[in-house]
Amino acid sequence: MSANILVVEDEPAIQELIAANLQHAGHNVLRAYDAEDAIRIVRETLPDVVLLDWMLPGMPGIQLARRLRSDERTRDLPIIMLTARSEEHDKVAGLEAGADDYLTKPFSPRELLARIKAVLRRRAPQMTEDAIEIEGLRLDPVTHRIFGNGKPLDLGPTEFRLLHFFMTHAERVHSRTQLLDQVWGDHVFVEERTVDVHIRRLRSSLELSGHDWLIQTVRGSGYRFSALAE
Ligand code: CA
After folding, report:
1. Fewest beta carbons less than 10 Å away: which of 14, 42, 62, 217?
2. Spacing, Cα 96 to ligand 1 middle (Å)
3. Rounded distance, CA 51 to CA 3, Å?
């Protein structure tokens, strides 16, 4: 599992240590040294997880967590708070501000990676490597293979990621902007029409086993993966 992780930490030595551990585990690291930095980065690229230090110069981490939770685009972004404090009331405040988890410094790299994995499993199941099967359509992230009623289907890398996101977020309507954010990781530099092109390719690949009906167009809103009739 490889995720885009935004590390918001003002102390360079700690920032460096965390980044090195994450990169070693195969993750891609985005770095911010304060909340304003973080906001600018998130505006361009939606990360998969945010590691957020509590004590930052300027806007405190807890306020940034609240801000991310109040914006529709970043509402579901997994947030893990990092802090030197260990008092119980601070943990409660962090969780109330919308953090998914809480790590007290110093923490072991192993614990950090385990918490990231747990948060992703809960909030971003498309990031995990669990195989998923719906209506005879089976997707296996480990082998990168897709079977429709046992028949292997041939999908391009973008169509694979798109289908993985759909299958782990079934029955919900996703706008083109949301799909760009979640599947491409970018809603600023890619045109919305790109989504339609890849949806078309995905449907045509799924036609072989008759699963193309699972990708539904929701007029005026976007797309939905659904096993229920339209
Ligand atoms: Ca700090």
Report:
1. 217
2. 20
3. 12
Residue 200 to residue 22: CA distance in whole angstroms: 36
> Do residues 51 and 30 make contact, with C-beta atoms less than 8 angstroms apart?
no
Going from the Cα of 155 to the center of ligand 1, the distance in angstroms, rounded, reads 44
Of the candidate CATH numbers 1.10.1370.30, 3.30.750.24, 1.10.287.180, 3.40.50.2300, the domain formed by 4-125 belongs to 3.40.50.2300
User: Residue 87's pLDDT is what?
Assistant: 66
Q: Within 5-143, where are the H helices? A: 12-24, 35-44, 61-70, 88-96, 109-123
C-alpha 2 – ligand 1 centre gap (Å) = 26
Give residue 189's pLDDT.
77
Q: 82 forms bridges with which residues in the sheet?
A: 53, 103
pLDDT tens digits, one per residue of 133-189: 999 999 999 999 999 999 999 999 999 999 999 999 999 999 999 999 889 876 677
8 A C-beta contact, residue 215 and residue 203: yes
**Distance from Cα 58 to the centre of ligand 1, integer Å:** 11
Q: Give me ligand 1 centre to Cα 91, in Å.
A: 16
